[in-house]
Amino acid sequence: MSQQDRIAFQGEPGAYSHLACRQAYPDLEPIPCATFEEAIATVRSGEARLAMLPVENSTYGRVADIHALLPGSGLFIIGETFVPVAIQLMGRPGDRLEDVTEAMSHTVLLGQCRDFLGRHGIRPITGADTAGSARMVAEATKPGRAALASELAAEIYGLEILARDVHDNKNNATRFLVMSRQKIEAEPSAPKVLTTFLFEVRNVPAALYKAMGGFATNGVNMVKLESYMAGGSFTATQFLADIEGHPEDPSVRNAMEELGFFTSHRRILGVYPSHPYRERVKKV
Where would I find the ACT domain in this sequence (predicted)? Predict the structure, then answer.
């Protein structure tokens, strides 16, 4: 398989990011990376064509570090995908649920199974990540220890699922962005398009309020707005926004022009198809 047939993700084999790669790009070879920075660098160097990066979880909010890495990544957003967080309790072959006394996983995943663990008297043990915890359980000889991870992790590390779908919130999902060195934008005629962009408001009174006004008056739906400090400054705030629509749509074009009056800079990171999962969630 050539380097252009690969997709990079952060984590060990069996991580939910790995699952996102398999679901969205089954024909590409998933490449595990130790950090988000390494996944981005793998694409920038040409060792992989795409990167699959988690940006937010419907229960726990945004993924730390990603928003700070996106502006300087040198990559473009070309798509999004969603992975429902189905959490499985797994142990070594022959283990039984009634013998499990502790479960290892990433701290975020442990928090999503609090009710199940409490009902069964299972003590949570913090691991580096989900798939790594599954691997450690597979390699260890400690009796009574299980892992909380994806079904893919159980498959990869030869573990047996002792209890299925043990997460407390059945509607929990993680959103991933697909990143590429190539700028690939959705066509203006595409039926459902998202535009993601960065902007920094000028340090004047009511700048953000005025900057947002153009989207309201032009009927542009903003589905996400995140803020964080820019360059270590307490006076310069940078925003990451997702809106529905293409930059060539007249309403979006007018809103972006109005935004320019109240910002020191703005940059589009991606124009890409909205994932069908959004529509399914609206109907629930």
Answer: 196-273
147 to each of 92, 98, 159, 163, 271, how far by Cα in Å?
10, 14, 9, 11, 38
Count of domains in the chain?
3
**Strand 123-126 vs strand 102-105: parallel, antiparallel, or unpaired?**
parallel
Query: Are residues 176 and 48 part of one domain?
Result: yes
* Known active-site residue 116: no
Residue-wise pLDDT tens digits, 205-219: 888 888 899 999 999
The structure tokens listed for 250 are 């007249």
Name the active-site residue from 76, 176, 239, 262: 176
Active-site annotation holds for 199: no
Q: Are residues 176 and 80 in the same domain?
A: yes
Q: Would you say 242 and 196 are in contact if contact means Cβ atoms under 8 Å apart?
A: yes
Catalytic annotation, pick one of 42, 174, 195, 263: 174
Blockwise average pLDDT, block size 10, the chain, 284 residues: 83 96 97 96 97 90 81 94 96 96 94 95 94 95 93 97 94 94 95 95 83 94 86 71 97 95 92 92 63
Residues 24, 141 within the same domain? no
Structural domain includes residue 241: yes
